[in-house]
Amino acid sequence: MEKKIGNLFKGDKGIWTVFLFLCLISVVEVFSASSTLTYKTHNYLSPLIYHCVMILLGVVVAIVTLNIPCRYFKLITPLLLLITYATLLWVLIWGESINGANRVIQLPGFTFQPSEIAKGTMVLTAAQILSAMQRDDDSGADPKAMKYVLMLVVPATLLIGLENLSTAILLFGVIFIMMFLARIPLKQMGQLSGVLVLLAGLFLGLVFWMAKLDKEGQEIEQAQKNGQTEQVVQVEKKEKSAWDKVTHRFWTWKNRIAGGDDKDVPAEEYKVTDKNFQVTHANLAIANSGIIGKGPGNSVERDYLPQAFSDFIYAIIIEEMGLLGAVAVVFLYVILLFRTARIASKCENNFPAFLVMGLTLMLVFQAVINMCVAVDFGIVTGQPLPLVSKGGTSTIVNCAYIGMILSVSRSAKRKEKYEKTVIA
């Protein structure tokens, strides 16, 4: 029996431990944080059952994926690229809107986010190019490697960024670090960094200029400042003109970048509006936590945070599990990063090493962004906490990432075992 279970959970045991702990925390905290969904559906078990099904399905996906030899991941890259670009174009034109942005595709019985598939596809593509173009003299990647990576990654990043800027920045940041790890010539990396800084400055100027032209956004902003929630809803429900569809994301970006102008306001003058509503209640959740927290299921702020089960679940974790729980969750992601780095160092070939580092950086960086937002140390981005937040596509895809990491760990483990045998 133990042998059968061991065969099922193959791969690095440290990765499996982190994965299962995060899944356990996810089930407990999503059930606790889903009070708003429970109120809407009048069924307190429905959100829990849905999430447990997604977690179990994700574990199955991870087990199936870890049994696929790493070399076969290369074969599906062309198909994944085709699916990625097709779905990214589809979601921009016919996608369903979530929080004011077209991010999901509605299919019979379920929805999925193309950006989640795109992230893994781009990491897989970059890993292949960077590994294939390593020079024979072990001096790093061929200078042409950057050009080929950017040719495939930049268009996807731009398509994602039109409706989900934070995900686009996260993806490109991971690809940038992958190129650095692959030893792209430092001169090229410096030139790319300079171009990125220049583009960032131009983008910020464009955001603030275009936001001024968005009449709908100005109406919403004024209503938010006055705390007029009903007026905000009325404006958002109005049929958008073609121009409003172009400018609405610029207003959102401007609002998030320029947010926080009320942080220095005296407590007696502080006003909770739609603009700072989530951050305020996340801060309250953290402030009322203590060392050990209120205990699982005893959160108060979950009833006020509309995305308590997703974007702000880390604040609920802190409220219920306290400082100890907050540190424990951070520690799990740190273990994941260091275990993966160890696996990468044991790989015989560059492709699996670049692949597992890219996937892990994607998970860990996204976790850092989510946690920084929850503790009011960054701009609100809408990034869920990987493997913890409630989700459909994101949960399954993240579990597939874990499966790919475990698949690479199996081959690295066989190499280590072989070397020990030869030495003996």
Question: Span between N and C termini?
Answer: 31 Å
Shape field:
globular
How much helix, percentage-wise, in residues?
Answer: 55-70%
Report the radius of gyration as a whole number of Å. Answer: 23 Å
Q: Please, what is the average pLDDT?
A: 81
Strand order of the largest sheet: 1-2-3
How can the largest sheet be summarized? 3 strands, antiparallel
Tally of DSSP helical segments: 16
Secondary-structure element sequence? HHHHHEEEHHHHHHHHHHH
Q: Which structural category do the helix and sheet elements fall into?
A: mainly alpha
Low-confidence stretches: 231-237
- What is the percentage of strand-forming residues? under 5%
**What's the β-strand tally?**
3
Could you characterize what this model shows?
By secondary structure, the chain is mostly helical. It has helices at 2-8, 13-33, 35-41, 46-66, 77-94, 114-132, 144-161, 165-181, 186-212, 215-225, 229-237, 242-257, 277-287, 313-346, 350-374, 393-423; strands spanning 96-98, 101-107, 110-112. The protein has a three-stranded antiparallel beta sheet with strand order 1-2-3. A hairpin with a 2-residue loop joins strand 2 (101-107) and strand 3 (110-112). Helix 6 (114-132) packs antiparallel against helix 15 (350-374). The radius of gyration is 23 Å and the shape is globular. The two termini are 31 Å apart. Mean pLDDT is 81; it is low at 231-237.
